[in-house]
């Protein structure tokens, strides 16, 4: 990801929404769809995600407009954490 990061810019001002998966015993319910809990910029959604307890972050995802090659339309918890780390440099 090093070369890609050096050449890429991410629009952290892009519209995004933080979604949460319904859960049971801290596990995603595969029979249910995630629901939106907040909307704002990608930067705001990343900040809101990072404020969630680490033990529950797997229940969240961010949906935004894809910005290839670094940002997909649905960002997994792992992807959000990486973007948070790179936010200063992108």
Number of helices: 3
Most strands sheet:
4 strands, antiparallel
What coarse outline follows from CA principal-axis ratios? Answer: globular
Percent in strands: 25-35%
| Sequence of secondary-structure elements | HEEEEHEEH
* Cα Rg: 13 Å
- Low-pLDDT regions: none
Write the layout of secondary structure elements.
Blueprint: H1 2-7, E1 15-20, E2 23-24, E3 27-28, E4 35-41, H2 42-50, E5 60-64, E6 74-75, H3 77-86
Keywords:
3 helices, four-stranded antiparallel β-sheet, 90 residues, two-stranded antiparallel ribbon, alpha+beta, globular
Structure description:
Helix content is 28%, strand content 27%. The protein has 90 residues and is α+β, with helices and mostly antiparallel strands. It has a four-stranded antiparallel β-sheet with strand order 4-1-5-6. The chain has a two-stranded antiparallel ribbon with strand order 2-3. Helix 2 (42-50) packs across helix 3 (77-86). It is globular. The mean pLDDT is 92.
């Amino acid at each position: 990801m090093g070369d890609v990061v050096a050449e890429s810019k991410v629009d952290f001002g892009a519209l995004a929404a933080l979604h949460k998966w319904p859960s049971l015993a801290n596990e995603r319910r595969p029979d249910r769809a995630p629901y939106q809990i907040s909307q704002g910029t990608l930067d705001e959604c990343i900040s809101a995600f990072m404020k969630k307890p680490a033990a529950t972050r797997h229940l969240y995802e961010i949906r935004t407009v894809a910005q290839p090659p670094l940002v997909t339309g649905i960002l997994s918890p792992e992807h959000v954490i990486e973007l948070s780390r790179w936010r200063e440099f992108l």
